[in-house]
């Protein structure tokens, strides 16, 4: 029984590694985009008194979140992704996540802003993100969009954990789920 469990563990572990490898290759090759949920920031939603552009009024990355974002940047570089076009929500936790990746300048992008408290904005923001992705030159280098759970779920149907990369295949005006790359613990 123990050898069966060991074989199953190896089989599933190898499959996950191979799947991650194909996702990294797809991101490097173009025609794909990475939707990244910001790294861990304690709490849910935005606190009362939230002001865009004033980080003291927002949920910010925890020390573990800052370390995770830095480690994700190192992981991307280890996969041969040393530069990327980085768009980010204007929320501080997203901007900080994108900057800590260390892959190039960060472009604050209103279409990636959270609509957690404005659910009626979901369709409009999602359409704007799809247009941004459609018009991007992913052949020139990877495109990484750092945003929020609600935005990623609206675009992909996936509920990502903090720091997770959701790799989407660009299919004209649509995005198709290619796979998920979990953050390192």
Automatic annotation (TrEMBL):
Q: Signal sequence span per UniProt?
A: 1-18
Quote the CDD domains the UniProt record gives. HP
Q: Does the keyword Signal apply?
A: yes
Q: Which residues cross the membrane?
A: none
User: Does the keyword Oxidoreductase belong to this entry?
Assistant: no
Key words, A-Z: Signal
A Pfam family reported for this protein in Swiss-Prot or TrEMBL: His_Phos_1
- For this entry, the protein name equals Histidine phosphatase family protein
Task: Record the organism.
Answer: Parazoarcus communis
């Amino acid at each position: 029984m123990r050898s069966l469990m060991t074989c199953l563990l190896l089989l599933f572990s190898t499959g996950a590694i191979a799947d991650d490898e194909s996702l990294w290759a797809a991101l490097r090759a173009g025609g794909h985009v990475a939707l990244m949920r910001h790294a861990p920031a304690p709490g849910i939603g935005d606190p009362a008194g939230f002001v865009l552009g004033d980080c003291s009024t927002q949920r910010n990355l925890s020390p573990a979140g800052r370390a995770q974002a830095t480690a994700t940047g190192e992981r991307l570089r280890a996969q041969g992704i040393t530069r990327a076009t980085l768009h980010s929500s204007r929320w501080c936790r997203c901007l900080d996540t994108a900057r800590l990746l260390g892959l190039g300048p960060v472009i604050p992008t209103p279409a990636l802003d959270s609509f957690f408290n404005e659910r009626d904005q979901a369709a409009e923001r999602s359409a704007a993100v799809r247009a941004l992705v459609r018009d991007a030159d992913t052949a020139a280098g990877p495109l990484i969009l750092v945003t929020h759970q609600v935005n990623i779920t609206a675009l992909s149907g996936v509920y990502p954990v903090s720091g997770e990369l959701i790799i989407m295949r660009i299919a004209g005006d649509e995005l198709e789920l290619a796979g998920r790359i979990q953050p390192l613990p």
